[in-house]
Design goal:
Elements lengths: L4 H33 L6 E5 L2 E6 L7 H18 L8 E6 L2 E6 L2 E6 L10 H21 L3 H40 L4 H28 L1 H19 L1 E5 L2 E4 H33 L3 H26 L8 H13 L2 H16 L7 E4 L2 E8 L3 E5 L5 E5 H6 L2 E3 L7 E9 L5 H14 L10 E7 L4 E9 L5 H18 L16 H9 L16 H8 L14 H11 L8 E5 L2 E8 H12 L3 H13 L3 E3 L12 E4 L5
Helix pairs in contact: 1-6, 1-7, 4-5, 5-6, 7-8, 9-10, 12-13, 12-15, 13-15, 17-18
């Protein structure tokens, strides 16, 4: 099913927004998690029941991680041993110009100069940390009371019930929308699929938010959540690879991949806009449009990737080894992909096959619809799209009927019975060929005598046609005409036969004594004309067949259905800064006609064009005929 350019651009913009939103989530959520929860030198966090209170650094003889582990163990032991009704004593001790914090008269940590903010003394920093510790320890004691779990259990059940109800409602809504859109439009557009995907992500987001909230209520669950996030922070923050002396973590690589994907989508969107607005006006050849658009897309992507890598701090010279390894991989494992990619560029530069050409590749025959970097789409006369690797078009023998000159000759073999007049056969066959309006007069049709067959005189009729796509229908029509005209001239079309010779004298004498029966004289042959000859075969012909005329009643019923409650969506639509009132989209109307009138999309476009020619609908700016694209059309009855 063909899709309009504006629908594709809308889908691309939606995917770009989704990717950028994902990048924003990585920057705002995962990166702070990795920075706060991971414990790479020189800082490590002091944690109480899964909450980070503050961070410690390295000192002589002790790493930040060892200091934090010692403090966390003392805090956890103090919470377990303390009475829930008695506060845990936390004090500050000054000794030898060092400010230390003690818990239950046990050394907890020493406040160093590296941990003090600018303009704050060690004593002031210690007082701030002690206040945070006392508050956290008191909360930890409160959360270990027997009645605390009974209080928060109700909150957890309410939150879980509300979340389950919301997720169930959104799941039902998502399925209902999908069924309604599929039933109405046949298939989901990019924008609708993106909306369903966002709704699905919202469901998972609600589930994770509920889990996060429940873990926040229970100390042990909160500790488990902290450990999971700490583990994820370790995975995303630890150096994954080193390029040019710089270490990059998995988070850095993920952000680079998301930015690269957004760059590719942006280049595709920009190329599609240039192709639709500029190339279609300046370059009439469709194949040249695709070639220029492909070169432009790869150029923009390559330039953007070069700038992105430089801005990321990656020295491209350091990628020389990677490029050599990649070259070896292309030579062995990826040689087919590289071969198809290079073949695609050969097709775009040499242009032996262009978009719109009618070709034959082996036993495959059809029209070239698209030439991509790796593959080419060919649509057969049965309207089946076949994806062919570009290497086959370059390396194989391709018959291109449309190359340079689309006029081609068609061979139609036929045979007549022995004893037929050669002159009459020639006349009947040439008349039948010339009667078809799609057969060219110059060069003239020719009848070639091939020889004497087993049961017939064999001929080869050669006719010329303008469009090779019609060769199958034209061949069928000419055979219909041949059969009708040969019957007019009483020329027999033979079937396999054998002559039996008997040499019995008695039988010959009996045959000689049989009475002679006079045979009826054949009626005179009526000289056919092109008009009455075409009339005999018109109802068989795929080319000459006159389409059924549409009555006024049928048009009235169609308009009533289109404007009815189950018809096309007629509403105010905005394009750029202009609002077009009471209009519908051409591609949506085509889909509606396909579903309701049981027609192909090509026939639906013809029906829409008929409405335009009858003055029933028109393009909102009268710039286009009826097309299967994202164009706005309006009924004349809705004109303001």
């Amino acid at each position: 099913m063909p899709k309009s350019l504006m629908t594709r651009l809308a889908g691309l913009r939606g995917v770009m927004i989704f990717c950028l939103a994902g990048l924003l989530v990585f920057n705002l959520v995962l990166q702070p998690v990795a920075a706060e929860l991971a414990s790479p030198p020189p800082q490590a966090g002091v944690v109480v029941d899964g909450r980070i209170l503050f961070k410690l650094g390295d000192i002589d003889g002790f790493t930040a991680e060892s200091r934090a582990n010692l403090a966390n163990n003392l805090l956890q032991q103090a919470i377990q041993d303390a009475d829930v009704d008695q506060p845990i004593p936390v004090t500050i001790v000054q000794r030898d110009e060092l400010t230390t914090i003690r818990i239950k008269n046990r050394h907890l940590l020493t406040v160093t100069k590296g941990e003090v903010m600018m303009g704050v003394t060690a004593s002031e920093q210690a007082e701030e940390w002690v206040a945070v510790l006392r508050k956290s320890l008191r909360q930890a004691q409160q959360e270990r009371r027997p009645n605390y779990y009974r209080e928060v259990m109700g909150k957890a059940l309410i939150a879980l019930s509300v979340t389950i109800a919301l997720i169930t409602a959104m799941q039902w809504l998502r399925r209902w929308w999908s069924r309604q859109w599929t039933r109405r439009f046949g298939q989901l557009s990019y924008r609708r699929r993106l909306l369903l995907l966002l709704l699905l992500c919202l469901q998972y987001g609600l589930g994770l938010a509920c889990l996060f909230y429940i873990c926040e209520l229970f100390p042990r669950a909160r500790i488990g959540r902290y450990r999971v996030f700490w583990f994820l922070g370790e995975i995303f923050s630890n150096p994954l690879l080193t390029v040019g002396g710089s270490a990059y973590s998995l988070l850095d690589v993920t952000k680079l991949i998301l930015l690269t994907g957004a760059l590719v989508l942006a280049s595709r969107s920009l190329t599609a806009i240039v192709k639709s607005r500029v190339l279609q006006t300046l370059v009439p050849d469709r194949g040249m449009q695709d070639a220029i658009a492909t070169v432009m897309q790869f150029g923009l992507t390559g330039l953007g990737l070069f700038i992105l890598l430089q801005a990321w701090g990656i020295d491209l010279r350091a990628l020389a080894i990677f490029a050599s390894v990649l070259g070896v991989g292309l030579g062995f494992g990826l040689q087919n992909i590289a071969n198809n990619f290079i073949s695609g560029w050969i097709l775009l530069i040499e242009r032996p096959v262009q978009v719109g050409d009618f070709i034959k590749l082996g036993d495959l025959m059809g029209t070239v619809e698209r030439i991509g970097p790796r593959s080419t789409e060919i649509r057969t006369p049965d309207r089946v799209s076949i994806i062919v690797p570009n290497a086959e078009l370059v390396e194989s023998r391709v018959v291109n009927w449309s190359h340079h000159h689309p006029v081609s000759r068609l061979h139609l073999p036929l045979g007549v019975a022995y004893g037929s007049s050669i002159e009459l056969v020639h006349k009947a066959v040439i008349e039948a060929a010339q009667a078809h309006p799609e057969v060219l007069r110059h060069p003239q049709p020719r009848l070639r005598f091939l020889g004497f067959g087993d049961s017939s005189l064999d001929f080869d009729l050669m006719v010329w046609l303008r469009d090779p796509r019609h060769q199958f229908d034209l061949k069928s029509d000419v055979y219909y005409l041949l059969e009708a005209n040969l019957n007019r001239y009483q020329i027999e079309i033979p079937f396999p036969q054998r002559d039996l010779n008997l040499r019995t004298p008695e039988l010959q004498s009996m045959m000689a004594n049989l009475p002679v029966v006079d045979r009826p004289v054949a009626e005179s042959v009526v000289e056919p004309t092109h008009k009455n000859l075409l009339a005999d075969v018109r109802h068989y012909s795929a080319i000459l067949q006159t389409p059924k005329s549409v009555t006024e009643d049928e048009i009235g019923q169609l308009i009533q259905q289109m404007r009815g409650p189950e018809g096309v969506s007629i509403q105010d639509r905005r394009f750029r800064l202009t609002v077009h009132p009471k209009c519908f989209v051409g591609s949506e109307a085509v889909t509606w006609i396909v579903d309701t009138q049981k027609a192909t999309r090509e026939a639906a476009v013809q029906i829409g064009q008929l409405l335009v020619e009858l003055g029933i609908v028109h393009h909102v700016t009268d710039e286009h005929a009826f097309r299967d694209e994202y164009l706005f059309y309006r009924f004349y009855d809705d004109e303001m």
